[in-house]
Amino acid sequence: MSVIKQVIFGGQGLLMAKSEQHNQQDKAQRQGAFTKIVVFIISLPLTVLVTMIISILVEWSLLYYCDDGPDSNICQFTDFKPEMGADHSKIMLNQEAKYINTHFKESIVGSTPIKLAGSSIRWFESNIFKPLGIDGLKSQSPSARGDAWDYLISAYTIVKVVLLRLCVLLLSLPAYLLFAVVGIVTGLVERDLRKFGAGRESTDKYELSMKLIAPSIILCFVLYLSWPTSINPALIVVPFSALFGYSLHLTASNYKKYF
C-alpha cells in the first residue's frame, strides 16, 4: 500500500513540477516578446537617424565623384550629370513631393498628405536648421560661400528628402495593416487545419518566421530612405508590406496548436 502511495504522490509531484516548468517557460516567452517589441520601437528612430546620415554620405560621394565629369554607371544610375552639384538633391526633393502629391491624395489623419509633409519640414527647419544658422549661410554672396557650399546645401536638401519619404512610409501604414490582417487570418486558418488534421508542430519554423517580421519593416525604412535617386514608393513599400504579411502568415500558421 505504501508503495502505491509513493507512486501516486510521486506522479503528482512530477506533474506539478512539469506544470510549474511549463508556466515558467510561458512567462519567459511573454517577457521575451515584450522586450523585443520595446527594442523594436526604440530602434525605429535610431534607424531613421542612421539612414539619414547614410543618405547624406551617399549624396556627398556622388557629388565628389560625378560632379567633375566621370560618366560612370553609378552616375548614370543615380541620374547625376556633370556639374550638377546640389541641383541633384533639389531635383530629388521636387520629385518626391510629386510622388506624395500624386499617390496620397487623401489621408486618414484628416489632412492633405502634402500639407502634413510640408508642415513637418517647416517645423524641422524652424527648430533645427535655423538655430544652426542656415539663414545666415543662405544670405552669403556666391563668392563667399566657398567650395563646401554644394555639400552643405546637398545635406540640407537630403534631410528634407528623407523627411518626405518618412511621411510616405507613415502614410503607407494602411498597406502594412491590410497585408497583416490577411496574413494573420490565413495563418490562423492554416493553423486550425493543422490542429484538427493532426499536423506536426515545428518550433523551428515558428522561430524563423518570427525573425522575418522586424526585417520586413526595418529594411523597407533603410532601403527607401537611403535610395540615392527618386523612386516610386510603391516599388519598395508594396513588396516589403507583402513580405510583412507573409511573415505574419507563417508565424500564425506555425504557432503551437494547444495553449
Structure, described:
There is one protein chain. It is built from eleven helices and no strands. The protein has 259 residues and is mainly alpha-helical. It has a domain at 172-259. The longest helix is centred in the N-terminal third of the chain and has 65 residues, at 2-66. The chain is elongated, with a radius of gyration of 27 Å.
Low-pLDDT stretches are 5-9
Mean pLDDT: 76
Radius of gyration: 27 Å
Kindly state the percentage of residues in helix: over 70%
Tell me the strand percentage band: under 5%
Output the keywords.
259 residues; mainly alpha
Produce a short descriptive summary.
The protein has 259 residues and is mainly alpha-helical. It contains eleven helices and no strands.
Fold blueprint:
Layout lengths: L1 H65 L6 H5 L9 H17 L9 H17 L4 H5 L3 H4 L3 H23 L1 H24 L6 H9 L1 H13 L8 H20 L6
Helix pairs in contact: 1-7, 1-10, 3-7, 4-7, 8-11, 9-11, 10-11
